[in-house]
Write a structure and sequence with these properties.
FAD/NAD(P)-binding domain; Pyr_nuc-diS_OxRdtase; NAD; 13 helices; five-stranded mixed beta barrel; 3 domains; alpha/beta; Enolase-like, domain 1; about 30% helix
Amino acid sequence: MTEAERYDAVVIGSGEGGKYLAWDMAQAGQKVAVMERRWIGGSCPNINCLPSKNEIWSAGVAHTVAHAGEYGVVAGPVSVDMKTVVARKRAMVESLVAFHLERYEATGAELVMGNARLVAPGTIQVALNDGGMRRLATEKLFLNLGTHATIPPVPGLAETRPLTHIEALELDRLPAHLIVLGGGYVGLELAQAYRRFGSRVTVVDRGPRLLKREDEDVSDEVRLILEAEGVEVLLSAEVANVEGRSAGSVRVTVRTPDGSRMIEGTDILVAAGRTPNTRGIGLEEAGVALTDPGTIKVNDRLETTAKDVWAIGECAGSPQFTHASLDDFRIIRDNLDGGDRTTTGRLMPYCMFIDPPLARIGMSEAQARANGMDLRVVKLPMKAVLRTRTTSQTAGFMKALVDPQDRIAGFTMIGSEAGEVMAVVQAAMLGGLSYSVLRDAVLAHPTMAEGLNALFGNVAKR
């Protein structure tokens, strides 16, 4: 048996939280190794966040050119070269991977490419990608395992070889008719992008509305935006079976309240949730327990049920955002240094990058009502923000919740630059400021953030 190499810390998975933890510990003089199967830097720079936003931006450019005449700009017929779209995305990914390799070199953290498996507490066996085996022993173990796209057990679906977001972002051709299974964030972002590239797109969701975690008015507005661009949306539609082969011809039979219907397309994209990468790597050998959904069981300090083992990011049940994983790193880092930080009460922002984008932080109106909270709700259509009159981007609205102490409890925006405006509100919420601070702030004109003056000016006094 190969003798185990000794390390101060080992990280399995090179995603956001894991890599920053490894770099930080290595720079502090510890001997650290990171195990990674394939994606150097994790999924975000390779197959998820940044690649998708890269191609979504290309789709936005195509949409802008196609509508240039509305702004008095004469342009010829629009055509999209998907090979160039993908080449642009790949160039970005290559530069990001190079950046990560430079950081490993600069910090002294060792990157080991291979499949890791726990064989005993504090002992990891790695089947190296280039052949051979290594065995590592560590004092501290950090699990940054991530998730993968879920393929629902629909009859015939797996046999069609459907696209997930990974394959969809590698398409160097334009699907004639893309069928998207799932009305969540990933599915809707890619649905709009491919519609703008020129595909016919149908979104199928079994729920009664899109974005089930959002308020109904948010779901309705997003649906209107997508349908205005020609995306077909089928709701309360249960997929009964799928036939054919994606990239050729597929037939999806759905059951709806109005009866069965067959949808014929050329490609099928599955965007129906995520499954943690926690099975089959020996977590039980180290005494690491799982929750029923398959995430790693952790406390609010991200400590697992095993001594000196922590979990980071999606595999630990943290919100499925890169910035959540980064904050997981900060919590673990500070606690290892004697701090007392937890995940409890984190104010977690997020964006969905359709156009115009959706941004939310804090409570939704539905959550407040479900908890019986006495909150004032104010709403402002984006067309009331003068900046939108200059851009003709008037779709969407702002909405805020204000508590009895005049603090902001939640904010939602569908509109141009929503993520940037949300950051302003987030700063006020973190500071525990009264809504009146934003109501009375002198905000530059004409900007999108200026709409916060009017939004919070609508709050009724108690």
